């Protein structure tokens, strides 16, 4: 299959990224990062979570962030909520709300993360559907966390994944709702490119009309290889985080990488002629700012590797950046 | 095309990795790393360079390293040389010598790295062939540096690449030698997966019998995606460096990534059922030692992300590693 001509990127850095950081993040910093992201051409930004301030104190300022940030008409602002109380807060705050049913493919992780088994989660879906309907929203999405593997349970098999999707699909159908999109989240960075392809193909065989969104983590370095494999199978929608935010709280040097970095995916796509409508220079400025906020380097590669456009426009010649390459290569002996 | 059943990995860390580091590396440390690599199942290790001690003082101990290190019968030990004097030193030291003709696809980089233009390099090939022949070696390989792009010249186009290969092929043929292998080196990390596929396909169309070795850098994060794309086109041989050695002299935090990390490629392959015959646990011990030698973190992902085998064998449960995931996920609110 040939690569898509364009992809859509959902930025999740301000939400997923900051919750994992050690220090406090000021509301002002969150707002400023969102305002900067507003000008990069990104069409969807996940700005905060409506979760319990007791469990996730970093997100206690959700309403405040939404009140203070600039809202641009061509950008969708999304939030995360894990229970119906959270959904009600989202409904009160004029954000884009997808009629999404949340699922987890690992029972252990489901209990740890949402305090519910897979079976209980499925059982409760009809309550979600009721609330969405009462709010005038169509239920048309599934989101499956830990879809490719789990640090607590190990491998998640393809039949497990298909089975839980099938169950959720049936429940939606019984309640007269039609699922059009499935988000598959590699929450703990377990996927490999071949598994990505197989999973996408099985989903498409079973539900040919469905659109897939991928949420990938770069925990073990396979994030971009997985994204490439997915695009080869026609996937056009990805959730990513600026700078690769969402890494380990122990900071960049010791820690594991987080989400795949928005700029790294945009860069790979632009190099292959896939349009993202996102300004790479603008993204790198956002990463610089995000690094200032968190006080350490973020795992994105492009910030240190440098963009080619600089070379193409001869910006590097006789400047600091070329100097790096000079000392590198003049001390080198080959490849 | 389906993925290969197995691949061969050429370890280049001890050679390419250390030359880039800031501080001095003792001969003893080099020898110990090679001795450790000897026990991982790696079948080829590039141990040093026979280059001018004036220009590359780090490699002045080449003969000493070869004298002191353990040699295992089932491991090939390779070296780099850029001129005929270097080749003669290699010939005196009982290492595996490929009858390889060195080329560079970027004229500027060719001059900087080898002090010769592309034309002069091509002109001199017959001298190399003569020396190889006199030494009883068959000339059967080309190695093309900067094959996908150059920090000094920007893009290297497919016609440029094909043209230089064609020229070198003709020269080999005129001298009654047959090229069987081409090493394509993405010296400065410019390749993208689509370009990798196109290049491989063009090479295979023009020279169907040729085997391809890829030498990839992860400068901009696309290293593993490029390796995956190459394997999808049937490439079975890769040069990699333990820990991702070969990065920037300014150390891991500030610097760009180097070669793709041996353990990251092995991990990706093993996850996809591609045999490498390499012991991943052993590799991680080598990386730990290499990090002690250079005094900073190396860019490999697996060292921080953790291997799945630990989870599969429940090694993580109630131990430090699972704790990392616990605090991570209990503070999390979703994906």
Alpha carbon gap, first and last residue of chain A:
33 Å
**What is the helix/strand order of chain A?**
EHHEHEHEHHEEEHEHEHEHHHHHH
The side-by-side strand order for the widest beta sheet of chain A comes to: 3-2-1-10-9-8-5-4
> What is the residue-averaged pLDDT of chain A?
87
For this structure, the quaternary state is: homodimer
Secondary structure: helix percent of chain A: 40-55%
The appropriate CATH architecture of the largest domain in chain A is: Alpha-Beta Barrel
**Total count of strands of chain A:** 10
| Structural class by helix and strand composition of chain A | alpha/beta
Low-confidence stretches of chain A: 248-255, 312-334
What is the CATH homology-level superfamily of the largest domain in chain A? Aldolase class I
Count of discrete alpha- or pi-helical segments spanning 4 or more residues of chain A: 15
Radius of gyration of chain A (Å)? 20 Å
Tally the structural domains of chain A. 2
Main sheet of chain A, how many strands, which sense, barrel? 8 strands, parallel
Please report the first level of CATH classification, the CATH class of the largest domain in chain A: Alpha Beta
The name CATH uses for the topology of the largest domain in chain A is TIM Barrel
Shape of chain A: globular
In terms of DSSP E residues, the strand content of chain A is 5-15%
| Main interface by residue count | A-B, 86 and 88 residues
């Amino acid at each position: 299959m040939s690569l898509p001509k364009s992809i859509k990127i959902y930025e999740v850095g301000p939400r997923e990224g900051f919750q994992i950081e050690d220090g406090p993040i000021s509301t002002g910093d969150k707002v400023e990062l969102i305002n900067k992201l507003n000008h990069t051409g990104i069409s969807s930004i996940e700005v905060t979570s409506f979760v319990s301030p007791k469990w996730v104190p970093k997100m206690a300022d959700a309403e405040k962030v939404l009140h203070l940030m600039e809202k641009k008409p061509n950008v969708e602002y999304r939030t995360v909520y894990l229970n119906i109380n959270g959904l009600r807060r989202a409904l009160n705050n004029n954000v884009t709300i997808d009629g999404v049913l949340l699922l987890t493919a690992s029972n252990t992780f489901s209990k740890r993360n949402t305090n519910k088994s897979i079976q209980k989660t499925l059982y409760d879906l009809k309550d979600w559907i009721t609330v969405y309907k009462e709010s005038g929203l169509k239920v048309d999405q599934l989101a499956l966390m830990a879809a490719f593997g789990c640090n607590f349970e190990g491998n998640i098999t393809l039949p497990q994944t298909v089975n839980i999707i099938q169950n959720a699909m049936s429940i939606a159908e019984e309640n007269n709702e039609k699922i059009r999109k499935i988000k598959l989240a590699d929450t703990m960075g377990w996927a490999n490119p071949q598994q990505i392809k197989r999973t996408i193909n099985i989903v498409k065989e079973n539900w040919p009309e469905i659109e897939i969104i991928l949420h990938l983590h770069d925990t073990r370095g396979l994030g971009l290889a997985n994204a490439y494999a997915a695009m080869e199978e026609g996937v056009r929608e990805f959730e990513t985080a600026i700078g690769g935010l969402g890494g380990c709280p122990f900071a960049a040097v010791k820690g594991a990488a987080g989400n795949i970095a928005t700029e790294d995916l945009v860069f790979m796509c632009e190099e292959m002629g896939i349009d993202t409508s996102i300004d790479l220079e603008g993204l790198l400025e956002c990463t610089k700012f995000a690094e200032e906020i968190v006080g350490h380097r973020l795992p994105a590669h492009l910030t240190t590797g440098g963009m080619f456009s600089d070379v193409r426009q001869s910006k590097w010649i006789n400047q600091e950046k070329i100097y790096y390459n000079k000392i590198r290569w003049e001390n080198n002996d080959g490849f």
